[in-house]
Amino acid sequence: MTELRSIPFSPPDISDEEINEVVDTLKSGWITTGPKTKLFEKQIAEYCNTSKAVALNSATAAMEMTLRLLGIGPGDEVITCAYTYSASASVITHVGAKVVLVDSGKDSFHIDYDGIADAITEKTKAIIPVDIAGVMCDYDRIFEAVESKKQLFNPSNDLQKAFGRVAVIADAAHSIGATYKGKMSGEVADFTSFSFHAVKNLTTAEGGMVTWRDIDGFDNEEIYKQYMLLSLHGQSKDALTKTKLGAWEYDIVAPNYKCNMTDIMASLGLAQFKRYPEILGRRKEIIEKYDALLSQLEVTSMKHYDETYQSCGHLYLLRLNGEDEAFRNDVITKMAEKGVSSNVHYKPLPMHSAYKNLGFKMEDYPNAFDMYKNEITLPLHTLLTDEDIEYVVESLRDIYKD
Ligand SMILES: *Cc1c(COP(=O)(O)O)cnc(C)c1O
């Protein structure tokens, strides 16, 4: 074995461009929501081919504010998948609605498309599918499922009425820059929430963005304004407008929430976004290299590129064929001993205390458990060298040999 390396799981890739842009903001005299946030929103909307985008302080906030925009709350049900991070489901509880979890498809990291229609009741208002690892869901099948249950839908306001069916809110925390049937993540679901958390493909340290498709009978400026009110105390003027000479007066129209993005965050995002095509290209190279090197081992990697979709290459998910939890956990420990940091995406929600306490039982989600039990996620980030990738695979090969 070659010399021991130390390979972190997903360190942020911060260049001088990000540093200079942040310094520029710090020196500008305006550090919270302002011109850079608005520019970042404009660039992301353009990238996603949507009319508008709203920058917030996380994907979690983006999903929660979207549920609130739709007027979803107590008495309503919202569907998401068992195989995800807590945020996809916790936002449903934040608004007081009931979480409904659907299993994964057989041998799939995505939601079971065949299980969606069965989970829809007359109380269902939205579904939050998860674009895991940067691979978008099969949205045609999701829209087909919600359309098939249209007759059960009970709208409780004009926005819900405009949809006339369960709304599709993508948890796209992993999928900025991914495509599905030639369309960008952001323009496929009714609403799409991106994350710019420190470990994500494109980072603002913490941060998120929501985009939406045009809605019949609704003015995009009005929807944008609703998001502004939801995310900034229900205040009729934002901080920058209020700072204009003599323009002190404002109204609070509702006792709302606080989850706006700052210009410091947005400057990180602007610089990252400029570098993003290059970042996506390198991620693709790494995935192709892993795929080639791992083909000799008894493992199955998630497929990132296909005729119908192009992933943005966020996570490298791997199944250790035929193995169980104990074997997988042992592999992670042994990889760590060799200096390689790996992870599991995800421990399904019904295995966590919070969701057990809500009454969920893991035995009701057999496909999710099968995906989880032998899954391991390898380091995938743009600070990896080709030698690092070879070292990671060699480490795994050595563990299999022992
Ligand atoms: C990171 C992540 C989130 C949360 O993103 P934040 O920006 O941290 O709120 C939501 N869903 C998934 C699948 C994630 O990986």
Automatic annotation (TrEMBL):
Alphabetical UniProt keywords: Pyridoxal phosphate
Active site: 200 (proton acceptor)
UniProt modified residues of type N6-(pyridoxal phosphate)lysine: 200
InterPro entries for the chain: DegT/StrS_aminotransferase, PyrdxlP-dep_Trfase, PyrdxlP-dep_Trfase_major, PyrdxlP-dep_Trfase_small
GO molecular function: pyridoxal phosphate binding; transaminase activity
Pfam families: DegT_DnrJ_EryC1
One GO BP: polysaccharide biosynthetic process
Top-rank taxon, per record: Bacteria
Family: Belongs to the DegT/DnrJ/EryC1 family.
PANTHER family: DTDP-4-AMINO-4,6-DIDEOXYGALACTOSE TRANSAMINASE, TRANSAMINASE
Full protein name: dTDP-4-amino-4,6-dideoxygalactose transaminase
Record organism: Asaccharospora irregularis DSM 2635
